[in-house]
């Protein structure tokens, strides 16, 4: 843990969208942003596009199957902010610390994420309505 705490910086802000290519084009037209990384994450049933913003990303997410969490989110809430990803030095230690503090975890243990990261999610009911992703690079 750093002196500032477990969270070292914002890794990404994730936005759920119906049409990934349209969202990528919009960010390109509106802000001159371009895709730094694009990947299908079969385990989560999503395709993502990461747009680099300084040392962080805007992560655009679209479902690749109807039973994915992002598909369910879009059906219930529509397009918009899905979650915030925070970088941590050690995902397992951060997850254990969060659970010890009484925060409800979605993942019982860290798991592989996109870009070769290790991730774990914390439930929005424990975090003022915000789904939080812990991200270890």
Give your account of this protein's structure.
- With 137 residues, the protein is an alpha+beta fold.
- The chain has a single domain (7-136), classed as 2,3-Dihydroxybiphenyl 1,2-Dioxygenase, domain 1, CATH 3.10.180.10.
- The protein is built from 3 helices and 8 strands.
- The chain is globular and about 45 Å long.
What is the secondary structure topology, with strand pairs?
Elements: E1 7-16, H1 20-31, E2 35-41, E3 46-53, E4 56-63, H2 69-77, E5 80-88, H3 91-100, E6 111-112, E7 118-122, E8 132-136
Brief description of this entry?
This protein has 137 residues and is α+β, with helices and mostly antiparallel strands. The protein has one domain: Roll (2,3-Dihydroxybiphenyl 1,2-Dioxygenase, domain 1), CATH 3.10.180.10.
Keywords:
137 residues, alpha+beta, 2,3-Dihydroxybiphenyl 1,2-Dioxygenase, domain 1, 8-stranded mixed beta sheet, 3 helices, 23% helix, 39% strand, globular
Instruction: Count helical runs.
Output: 3
CATH class: Alpha Beta
Radius of gyration: 15 Å
Low-confidence sequence ranges = none
- Strand-residue proportion: 35-45%
**Mean pLDDT over the full residue set:** 96
């Amino acid at each position: 843990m750093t002196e500032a705490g477990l969270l070292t910086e914002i890794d990404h802000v994730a936005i759920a969208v119906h049409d990934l290519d349209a969202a990528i084009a919009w960010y390109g037209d509106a802000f001159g942003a371009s895709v730094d990384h694009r990947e299908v994450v079969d385990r989560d049933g999503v395709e993502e596009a990461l747009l680099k913003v300084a040392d962080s990303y805007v992560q655009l997410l679209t479902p690749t199957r109807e039973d994915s969490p992002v598909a369910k989110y879009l059906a219930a809430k529509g397009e918009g902010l899905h979650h915030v990803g925070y970088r941590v030095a050690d995902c397992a230690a951060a997850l254990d610390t969060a659970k010890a503090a009484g925060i409800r975890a979605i993942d019982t243990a860290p798991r592989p994420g996109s870009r070769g990261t290790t991730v774990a999610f914390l439930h929005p009911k424990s975090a003022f309505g915000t789904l939080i992703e812990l991200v270890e690079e």
